[in-house]
Amino acid sequence: MSAGQDFEAPTAGVATDEVVVPLPRVTMQAFCETPAVAATMQAAIADRRMDKAHARIHMGGPAAAVEAFRAAPTPNIIILETVSDPASLVGHLDALSESCDAGTKVVVIGHVNDVQLYRDLIRRGVSEYLIAPLSTLDVLKTLSELYISPGARNLGRIIAVMGAKGGVGASTVAHNVAWAIARNLDASTVIVDLDIAFGTAGLDFNQDPPQGIAEAVFAPERLDANMLDRLLSRCSDNLALLAAPAMLDRTLDLPEDAFDQLFDLLRATVPCVVLDVPHVWSGWARRALITSDEIVVVAGPELASLRNAKNLIDLARANRPNDSGAKLVLNQVGMPKRPEIDAAEFAKALGVEVLTSIPFDAQLFGTAANNGQMIAEVQAGGKTAEAFVQIASSLTGRGEAKRSKRSLFEPLVAKLRRKA
Q1: Do 59 and 85 form a contact (C-beta atoms < 8 A)?
Q2: What is the model's pLDDT at position 29?
Q3: Distance (Å, rounded) from C-alpha 121 to C-alpha 111?
Q4: 27-151 sits in which CATH class?
Q5: CA-based angle 177:181:184, to the nearest 5?
Q6: Which CATH architecture has domain 155-419?
Q7: By C-alpha distance, which of 353, 354, 377 is closest to 364?
Q8: Contacts of 364 by beta carbon, 8 Å cutoff, 6+ apart
Q9: Cβ neighbour number for residue 281 with a 10 Å cutoff
Q10: Do residues 229 and 237 make contact, with C-beta atoms less than 8 angstroms apart?
Q11: DSSP conformational letter for 321
Q12: Region class of 72: left (phi > 0), else alpha (psi between -120 and 50), else beta
């Protein structure tokens, strides 16, 4: 490619299935020259993945940055937008380099697509050159990649599963989906039971580990990769469990960031993490949902679930504008003698599609629970086991996720209703 030719750089509208990993605790200052880029930067700073970063936005471009850091220490990241000619930009960068601290990363946002300029910037130590207009995800992905090695970019998808109300089977869904991800999609997976007092993951997998999530949460100063490995209980080659002690020796008045260190460590070491979030509303439970890569709301086909599911889905929309929306799973569909809200009406009221509907089958689910087995172990190849595989495919992006229709379960539902 010769000088003056265009080169490929991130631009608005570029879709990606990669996980954008949250930034570590860094400082960042952006110096913009146009309102559009400043607005994009503001949206990026407000994103959940920037929660730990301390960021500020200024106007004035490279010239303002040079003045700002003449006598002040530079942050971890400096973002410069320029609308000036390449010679002026290079001059400002040379001036800025005289006061830049070692380790400061510089990202330049320009309006010129020129490979020679790109080469000049890289030679001067610029970390990345982006071309406006940019989307919020373009900015987040670039910043994330400054601190994540190329081989780790696809690690660390966290999936949070929470019930719209107690008793709708959210834990059962979480455990079976994790099993499907590990077994059917061949992805190393960890299930994290966040219900420290009443968690059932250990029972569902017929495990009784002496240690688990309590040791990780109540002794964070000791938590590292080696300790985490000791706390995990192996369920299969691809599946591990961080079990809850299910003991009432202490209450769970935990700070909002109680699980942050654990989640960061898991995200860095395993491709898929499934959080079994209990039906409680606290700062740490809300944070676990908002900071996850995917949210699954499990609801029963009745009014209380409808109301609560709407609140959870609206919360996700408001706090995660740059993420996919929360997914809805209807569980226990077709319970004998219970009036139910139709799946189509349920979806219409919430403004989302039902990812899948899982039929009520007391015999199947009861047998699995009492035996400490997954549904696929009790009834391999059945429609219910297939539904969990479809949920897993949709959440991970692995394989073609088939959208389940209510008609898939109509024979079983009709049979149950006839018996009633």
Answers
A1: no
A2: 94
A3: 14
A4: alpha beta
A5: 110
A6: 3-Layer(aba) Sandwich (3.40)
A7: 377
A8: 375, 378, 379, 382, 384
A9: 9
A10: no
A11: T
A12: beta
